[in-house]
Amino acid sequence: MHAWPASEVPALTGQGRDLRIHDTATGALVTLDPGPVARIYVCGITPYDATHMGHAATYNAFDLVQRVWLDTKRQVHYVQNVTDVDDPLLERAVRDGIDWVGLAVKETALFREDMTALRMLPPKQYIGAVEAIPGIVPLVERLRDAGAAYELEGDVYFSVEADPNFGKVSHLDAAAMRLLSAERGGDPDRPGKKNPLDPMLWMAAREGEPSWDGGSLGRGRPGWHIECVAIALEHLGMGFDVQGGGSDLVFPHHEMGASHAQALTGEFPMAKAYVHAGMVALDGEKMSKSKGNLVFVSALRRDGVDPAAIRLALLAHHYRDNWEWTDQVLADAVERLGRWRAAVSRPDGPSADALVEELREALANDLDAPAALAAVDRWAALQAERGGTDEGAPGVASRAVDALLGVAL
């Protein structure tokens, strides 16, 4: 599966700062010190109802992570999946009376278009669950053969007891885990499971549903969590720098994925930091497919909204905050974009060297995008009030905003 084209990232003079970011597993800020190549895995979409603002906010956060790393002169190895076969996708296809493959292809293409318009940096590997199946099957077999998984009526389940570090991502108690498991794709009440929390690794073929050859597992399709584990381990290996996604993935997805990988390799942890973006609401409720209260990037673009303004609307909120999308949020972003573009359109202005360092400092401090926006606002206000004599300043400011915030002025 191919990703989307990369926009050019201007190289800035000087040196960026190492990123301090909130790690869900420790509940604290950690300073990341990757090697020459920083490694990040971000969970991708299930391709239906793409791309809503909750998606966009999440991928914007991890785009900032990449930009901070690139500014430190590191390379970035970014991997993202597409869950292009899963119960919600199949259910939507049935509901709408369309082929599930066609739905996945259409929505993935739309997602690529939206990511391109928003100038999100693409992953090096962009991999669908279906194409990953040949790599998933051997991992499930290894877990089963090692006693870390078991069969139940043809399905294969992971035993959470096989990982002594299970629970160290979310730090939830068993009751909370069971509740979230039921809400987010698990089946804690299924009779015969060794532990209600045990997640499915391989689902035996069901009548009327797609299935693939699973070798000794029989025909079927992979569970949700093992998909990401197989892709991450193949392309990044254990101990990569950041596992990212929305806060709704903390449990069960990232908790279970970590345990799968740790049971497979005997190593801990799977990722050095687990980083999660907040949820976006509309009309007082979390924006979600099930509620249907979605604002789509593509719809805004069709209405003539500049993608740079959409990106500024996302950047106006700290990535870990839960916030609400409103018409005013977008109006403020459109107005801000106009002010910034007016500021950099002049032939000279006040020095922007300090602005570059303010942007670096803000983003290195747990991706504090609102502080970064405030710094550009101050520079733009100085430009509007009294200008300056530095002929290179508008260009410096424009390149810094582009490189570090992904906003083309």
UniProtKB/TrEMBL annotation:
Motif segment ('HIGH' region): 45-55
Name of one Pfam family that matches: tRNA-synt_1e
Leader sequence residues: none
Residues annotated as binding Zn(2+): 43, 228, 253
Catalytic reaction annotation: 1D-myo-inositol 2-amino-2-deoxy-alpha-D-glucopyranoside + L-cysteine + ATP = 1D-myo-inositol 2-(L-cysteinylamino)-2-deoxy-alpha-D-glucopyranoside + AMP + diphosphate + H(+)
Domain spans labelled tRNA synthetases class I catalytic: 39-334
Cofactor binding note of this UniProt entry: Binds 1 zinc ion per subunit.
An example Gene Ontology molecular-function term: cysteine-tRNA ligase activity
Superkingdom of origin organism: Bacteria
InterPro entries: Cys-tRNA/MSH_ligase, Mycothiol_ligase_MshC, Rossmann-like_a/b/a_fold, tRNA-synt_1_cat_dom
UniProtKB keywords: ATP-binding, Ligase, Metal-binding, Nucleotide-binding, Zinc
GO cellular component: cytosol
SUPFAM superfamilies per record: Nucleotidylyl transferase
Motif ('KMSKS' region): 286-290
Enzyme Commission numbers on file: 6.3.1.13
Cofactor(s), by name: Zn(2+)
Positions with a binding annotation for L-cysteinyl-5'-AMP: 43-46, 58, 81-83, 224, 246-248, 280
Location of the motif 'ERGGDP' region: 183-188
UniProt cross-references to NCBIfam families, sorted A to Z: mycothiol_MshC
Quaternary structure and partners: Monomer.
Family according to the record: Belongs to the class-I aminoacyl-tRNA synthetase family. MshC subfamily.
Entry protein name: L-cysteine:1D-myo-inositol 2-amino-2-deoxy-alpha-D-glucopyranoside ligase
Protein's organism: Streptomyces sp. SID12501
Gene: mshC
